[in-house]
């Protein structure tokens, strides 16, 4: 259960991903074909995994998540409906459904994502807002509404995005979520 929740949570963060993000960074770069690669690092700078995404002609995005040894630990597939809502389905390394997330954006550009486990039970939410400088702050909450961490993203002039993940001060880490 914990693995499915963590996989779903990190898939969103890096286009979602995984790994031990109780503190650390994710750095995303895009190649000439529009494929993105995200490298995840722990608070010590050690690589904990990667996520590689590609988008098909219909706008569906598939992301393969790998651990620090290059082994596939799961995939996520996202599609966007005509209203701009994005649904992502998460599967483990065996192809089993481990959860979904649904994201919607309000008129002010704030995005809310609801996470559900493989049984359809609510396991948490994330709410993102972007400031005037283009920095995005995301607050992550568990199923009880308790804040369990934040993520702050910044994109440089080359289009590379770095996200810093921090646990909440209440002693709960993102890994525990």
What does this structure look like?
This protein is mainly β and 177 residues long. It has one helix at residues 2-13; strands at residues 24-30, 36-42, 47-55, 61-67, 72-80, 86-92, 97-105, 111-117, 122-130, 136-142, 147-155, 161-167. Strands 1-2-3-4-5-6-7-8-9-10-11-12 form a twelve-stranded antiparallel β-barrel. A hairpin with a 4-residue loop joins strand 6 and strand 7 (97-105). The longest helix has 12 residues, at 2-13. The chain is globular, with a radius of gyration of 15 Å. The termini are close together. The model is unreliable at 1-22 and 172-177 (pLDDT under 50).
Strand order of the largest sheet: 1-2-3-4-5-6-7-8-9-10-11-12
CATH C-level label: Mainly Beta
Task: Specify the structural class.
Answer: mainly beta
Assembly state (oligomeric): single chain
CATH domain fold name = Porin
Q: Roughly how much helix do the residues carry, as a percent range?
A: under 10%
Number of domains: 1
Mean pLDDT: 86
The tally of strands reads 12
